[in-house]
Structures are given as structure tokens and as C-alpha cells.
Amino acid sequence: MFIRLTTFAASASLLATGALAQDFNAVPPNAPDQQPAFENQTRAPVLAGDVALNQTVIADGLDHPWGLAELPDGSWLVTERAGNLRLVGADGTLSDPIGGLPELDTRDQGGLLDVTVANDFADTRRVWISFAQPREDGKTATAVATGTLSADNSTLEGTEVIWQQQPAWDSTKHYGSVLIHDGQSGLFVTTGERSVPDARVYSQNVTTTLGKVVRIDPETGAPMGDPGVAEALPEIWSWGHRNIQGAALDGQGRLWTIEHGPKGGDELNLPQAGRNYGWPRVTYGVEYSGDPVEEGVTQMEGTEQPVYYWDPVIAPGQMTFYDGEMFPDWQGDLLIGGLKSNDLVRLELDGDRVTGEARHLQGIGRVREVEVARDGALMLLTDEDNGRLIRVTPAQSES
């Protein structure tokens, strides 16, 4: 157990490095010739970042933590990408690894990914996890399993794999994968397109689930998508995605996703059923080499534009819409973990459009996950060898 309180002023005037961090729109783009399709689609006006924040380290020593889910008693389930599911008590007590997990492939970007629990967890103790699953001939794919957490919190019981990405691929990258209960009896699962050039083209192939948002029955894994295309797999919701590692429902119950793009092409989307989001035919940004992605096209009939994109990238982790009492000025704002930007990214929205962007907690580390606790505090995970679970509150609030 390790609990430490620090105060962090996320302000250009109060942080030695803040002037540079809050001047993020001054950094030149990787694709300077590309133009947004509409106002504020990128480089929205910079919002004031002068909010002093308390940080309380609830637990540290985590091995590249990835997913986070709050339980009714105020404890948190945390996944470690290396293959462990742990329970962090409200007092910071870190459990031994929870048993009963399916077989994982933990190479490179693989391992144990997201975790979510049932709304009626207090009665059912139902848990879902996503993970990189070893398949035939050394191939891997994203998969989803469910089970019930034992009364003593030591074991995931009756664990069953209910969904598998198709096809498996000889790659250890771009698995996705976020799990979002949609409030309508379905479970959204986001996937990646496995990164390598011969696999990523399948983002455009609706007979596969590479580079897709899928929707399934959370109990059985049965398809509940709405692809609107006769030959498409019935679990598909949307396609043409690169590597979606963040997703959340807004106040209207709509799904938003955020994905890692190429160099200069991270995207925020509001994916609609049966729509194509372009990758790799249409994208902002360039290859890591600096070459165009395919034909270098940023707009194409039959594909959807992102709500927002970043050039340079932030390398987004998980995200959430703020709905709580501690940060009243942030109500309805979108909070995003920045892996490369090493901060908490906040977007102000007006309807479906971004009107401003701020960066908070600059230098805190690779923020993989951000969730809103029941009391309105923010809970962050840092994706590091010595990963931390951090509680963030306004400086004037008790932590």
C-alpha cells in the first residue's frame, strides 16, 4: 500500500514546464499540407489550464496497468497488461493476482486489457475482460471473456470466452480494446487492425472484425451489431478504424471512441451504426516514415470525418465524460488519458463539436486510463513499469 498526497498546479504560470505544455498548438504538424474539414476539427482554441489539483497515489508498483472498474464498496479492479487482475481497496491495499483468467498472450502490446463490471455487480458479481488471446500457429487476436468474482475476491469463477476477433493474425500489436455497456442490453467491444500492412487493409473488409467497433450480447457474445451491409458480420457496428483504445458514452447514451492514428492522425469519433471511418484509405497524418498513408487522402465520399484529430498526436488512452460534483466547470467535458503527451487532455464540447482543449497534469506520466469515481474524483492509471493508481481532486477539496 502506498498513499501520498501532492498538489499539482496544472497552470502555465505555476508549472516550470507549463508555458511550453499549454502552448501545444504552437508545435508544428507532421502533415502541414493537410487541412481540416471544418472549424475546430483540430487545434481548437486553448482553454485556461489554471486549475490546482491534488494528487493522491492510492497504489503503486503496478505492472503497466491498463483497465479500471469501480466496485460498489469503493474498491477498484485493475488489469495489468502483463496478465494480472488485481483488486485495489479503498485504503490502497493491493491484492494478490486474481485467479481464473483465460490463457493470454502477453507479448509486446498484448496481455490483459480492459475490465468492466455489471451494473448489478453487488448481486451478480459479474465481470468482463478483454485480452490478447493466443490462437493457432502463433497467431493472436482480441477476445472477450466473462465470469463472476468469488466472494473472497480471489478468483474469477466460471470464466468463459464469449467473443473472438476474426481472423487471428501473426502480430503482437493493435488489439484495441475497450468494453462499454451501452445501457440497452448490449456490450460494445473496440478492436485494432493488428498494425502490419497486410492486416490493416482488413479494416475495410466487413467480413472480418479487424479495425471495428462490434456490439454483442454480454451474456452469450451473440451478435447485436447493425452493419447495414448484407455480407457484413452481424456483430459489426462501424468499421474503418485503426486502433481504438478509448471509448465512452455521453450524457445522451451515445458511443464516442478515440483511436491511435498514424503520425499526426489520432482521432475522436462519434461512430454511427453501419458507417465507415476510413482507415487506411482515408486518414489525417502520415506514416511514421513521413510518407503518405496510401494516397494521402483526408476526405472521401462514403467515409465519415472524425469529430476531432490531433497532429502531433497525444497517443490516447481511455476517456470519460465528466459527470460529478467536484469539477462543476468540467461538467460534460471529455477527459482523455494522454500516453505520449503525458497528461490529462480535456475537450470542451458544444453538441457534437469541440470548442476548446486544455492539458492538465503535464508530466504526470503515460496516462492510460481515466475514470470518474462515484464521489466525482478522477482516478488515473499510469502505464509504466511502476504504474500508479492516482486519485485527482481540486486542491481545495479533501482527497
From TrEMBL:
Q: Which Gene3D superfamilies match?
A: TolB, C-terminal domain
One Pfam family assigned to this protein is GSDH
Q: Does the keyword Signal apply?
A: yes
What keywords would UniProt list here? Signal
What InterPro entries does this protein's entry cite?
Answer: 6-blade_b-propeller_TolB-like (IPR011042), Glc/Sorbosone_DH (IPR012938), Quinoprot_gluc/sorb_DH_b-prop (IPR011041)
Q: Which PANTHER family match?
A: ALDOSE SUGAR DEHYDROGENASE YLII (PTHR19328:SF75), HEDGEHOG-INTERACTING PROTEIN (PTHR19328)
What is the name attached to this protein's record?
Glucose dehydrogenase
Q: Which organism is it from?
A: Paracoccus acridae
